[in-house]
Amino acid sequence: MKYYLVALFDDVSYKNLSPIQRSLSKKYRANRNSPIPYIPLEVIENPNIDKLNTVIDKILKPYKNFKVELSSTITLCDSNKTLNLKIEKIGYIKKLDRLIGDNLKLHGFNVKNDNTDLHLSLANINYINRDNKKFDTEIEYKPSISTLKVNRLELWKISNNRRETLIQTYPLKTI
To answer: How far is Cα of residue 11 from the mean position of the Cα atoms in its chain?
Structure first.
């Protein structure tokens, strides 16, 4: 079973991001029941959940809430079938992603690290049109949502039942 470690945002960021998610979902005919926007960090196969929780808690203990800057580039991921928005200036979150991945591999977890660049996943797409398969598009949006504040990481198990999706929440320190 695959488990996903994802970064999530505070309520203000989601409030500012929801109009963009709705408009892009409508434009690209994405699934309306997509999960909330998130940044996928790691994919872990068949972990021991208790050991994983202790390792991630230990890794995240010194980290505070942080901000990520959004780019205006939209991409479609063919392997995950998701509609994504790229992230600019990924220094802090890239450092955290690399640290988590390296420590999980050191502790013997089966980590699949297929993402070379980090992105914000907005919606799931069931069918990708041939014309839209490989594209990068610039969109216009307000500068007020150019930054989003990450305040927690969560461990998800994707299933058909929404109540079983969330496994564990790892809150980051507030300032």
So the answer is: 16
* CA–CA distance, 137 with 84 (Å, rounded to integer): 11
| pLDDT value at 11 more than 80 | yes
> What does the pLDDT look like over 134-144, one tens digit per residue?
454 545 444 44
Please name every residue paired with 5 in a beta bridge, in sequence order, or none if there are none. 42, 155
Domain chopping of the chain, boundaries = 2-171
Residue-wise pLDDT tens digits, 139-173: 544 444 678 999 999 999 977 666 668 899 999 99
For 2-171, which CATH superfamily applies?
Cyclic phosphodiesterase (3.90.1140.10)
- Residue 66 CB contacts under 8 Å (≥ 6 apart), including other chains: 92, 93, 149, 150, 172
User: What average pLDDT does the chain have?
Assistant: 83
Rg of the chain over all Cα atoms, to the nearest angstrom: 16
Does the pLDDT value for residue 126 go beyond 70? yes
Angle (CA) 49-52-57 rounded to 5° is 125
**Residue whose pair of structure tokens reads 């309520």 in the numeric block:** 11
Q: Is 146 left (phi over 0), alpha (psi -120 to 50) or beta?
A: alpha
| DSSP label at residue 143 | G
